[in-house]
């Protein structure tokens, strides 16, 4: 007869424990008889009382009921929605402690998954980690005749109001309140996720930190335009809103944007600035949501590249050309490769408005383009790769290693896939030289990192 080990904790019971570490999501971890208990909102060094909500084979989860001994790193001034909103999971910690935690997350993940032991630089933070988001995606919800724009509650699809969210500018918060009023007054039919009926699903904001221009994107369930009155009311009160788009998304499920955009009124683009460069931003453009930190990130990439004006750079996953154009000012030639055709068109336009003539943007998959380009007798001094959260596939990693650049600069938004990919690149003859975390998303557990790798073989281009 199979024996079942007795767990030291029981469901729905309360226990006192000391938090001695944290997870990669920023949860506190304490132990009872060496059995790990994950507690959101708890900080290493604290003694807390928790109620167990889930018991698994090797760990349990609990909710924080009482802080018996508080950490010196605890922040007492929190958003009123801290217990319900799923957004700012680290706001209970002071900012210096958040930055240190993110450094530790990158360091430990590289060691555990990648087998890479290296001193990670202190996380580059913001001077004022508030109102940093230049983009926001709000769910539209209607209850008892009242329309609410907001985010999902923790662990559910119930929408709650944002209550003047500190991640956005004062102007965006004003527009959110106004939209809730006029959408309620005009009795716009709101999409119901459960029965798949209704019209208005989401509202997406994009805001230029340079010009303060705002783009509004109304996500609807069908192509009908029922928004003219709403647009007129917004225009009258908020002249900063210069672009109004409709996005059509008839598909069920949680994906916010559909494939079709229609310009309803105003300009098709807003413009923003990174360093000395201007960028035109369309509804579909990938543009880092934190403009201030993006500039620091790309400046660090440029520093790592160490360009003298004679180098050839390949920028994989180039998007609308942000990193490419940063590099082009200091390189002989830059090739920006991007699989999304619309993004490469935006990149070409951004090169024109910045009078950059030594950057070429190509719509292609990097894993297909790079080997062919090398076979034609070309070589890269530097390859920059900035993939999505899932990281690079093995074909892309193999193509980069076989191209034998002198340097590979990897920009990552996911420490786990970063560590996995670096392990492959190291096995291919490269050495990790520098690791720099950048706090792109203050108050959350997300962390951006930039890594410099150099060739450890004589075959690579120096």
Automatic annotation (TrEMBL):
This is 23S rRNA (Uracil1939-C5)-methyltransferase. The keyword Transferase applies. InterPro entries: MeTrfase_TrmA_AS, NA-bd_OB-fold, SAM-dependent_MTases_sf, TRAM_dom, U5_MeTrfase_fam. The active site is at 413, 413 (nucleophile). It comes from the Bacteria. Keywords: Methyltransferase, S-adenosyl-L-methionine, Transferase. GO terms for biological process: rRNA base methylation. Residues 8-66 form the TRAM domain. The lineage of its organism: Bacteria, Bacillati, Bacillota, Clostridia, Eubacteriales. Pfam families: TRAM, tRNA_U5-meth_tr. S-adenosyl-L-methionine binds at residues 288, 317, 338, 386. The keyword S-adenosyl-L-methionine applies. Belongs to the class I-like SAM-binding methyltransferase superfamily. RNA M5U methyltransferase family. GO terms for molecular function: rRNA (uridine-C5-)-methyltransferase activity.
């Amino acid at each position: 007869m199979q024996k079942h080990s007795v767990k030291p904790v029981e469901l729905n019971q309360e226990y006192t424990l000391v938090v001695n570490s944290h997870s990669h999501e920023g949860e506190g971890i304490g132990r009872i008889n060496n059995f790990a208990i994950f507690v959101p909102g708890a900080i290493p060094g604290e003694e807390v009382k928790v109620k167990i909500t889930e018991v698994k084979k090797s760990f349990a989860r609990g909710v924080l009921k009482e802080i018996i001994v508080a950490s010196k790193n605890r922040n007492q001034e929190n958003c009123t929605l801290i217990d319900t909103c799923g957004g700012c999971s680290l706001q209970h910690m002071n900012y210096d402690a958040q930055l240190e935690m993110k450094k530790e997350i990158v360091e430990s993940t590289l060691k555990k998954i990648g087998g890479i032991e290296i001193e990670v630089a202190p996380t580059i933070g913001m001077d004022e980690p508030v109102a940093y988001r230049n983009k926001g995606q709000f769910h539209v919800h209607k209850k008892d005749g009242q329309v609410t724009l907001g985010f999902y509650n923790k662990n559910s699809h119930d929408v709650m109001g944002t209550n003047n969210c500190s991640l956005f500018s004062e102007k965006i918060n004003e527009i959110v309140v106004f939209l809730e009023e006029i959408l309620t007054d005009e009795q716009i039919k709101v999409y119901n996720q459960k029965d798949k009926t209704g019209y208005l699903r989401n509202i997406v904001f994009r805001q230029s930190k340079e010009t303060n221009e705002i783009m509004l994107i109304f996500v609807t369930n069908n192509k009908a335009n029922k928004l003219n009155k709403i647009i007129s009311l917004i225009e009258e009160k908020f002249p900063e809103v210069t672009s109004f788009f409709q996005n059509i998304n008839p598909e069920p499920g949680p994906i916010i944007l559909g494939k079709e955009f229609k310009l309803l009124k105003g300009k098709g683009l807003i413009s923003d600035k990174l360093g000395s460069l201007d960028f035109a931003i369309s509804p579909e453009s990938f543009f880092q949501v934190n403009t201030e930190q993006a500039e620091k990130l790309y400046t660090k990439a440029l520093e790592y590249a160490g360009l003298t004006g004679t180098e050839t750079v390949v920028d994989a996953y180039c998007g609308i050309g942000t990193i490419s154009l940063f590099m082009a000012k200091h390189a002989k030639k830059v090739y920006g490769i991007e699989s999304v055709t619309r993004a490469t068109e935006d990149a070409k336009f951004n090169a024109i408005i910045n009078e950059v003539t030594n950057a070429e943007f190509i719509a292609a998959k990097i894993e297909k383009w790079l080997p062919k380009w090398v076979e034609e007798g070309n070589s890269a001094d530097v390859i920059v790769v900035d993939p999505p959260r899932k990281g690079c596939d093995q074909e892309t990693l193999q193509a980069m290693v076989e191209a034998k650049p002198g340097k590979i600069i990897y920009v990552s938004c996911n420490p786990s896939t970063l560590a996995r990919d670096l392990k492959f690149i190291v096995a291919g003859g490269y050495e990790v030289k520098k690791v720099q975390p950048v706090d792109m998303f203050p108050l959350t557990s997300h962390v951006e990192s930039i890594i410099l790798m150099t060739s450890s073989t004589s075959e690579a281009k120096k």
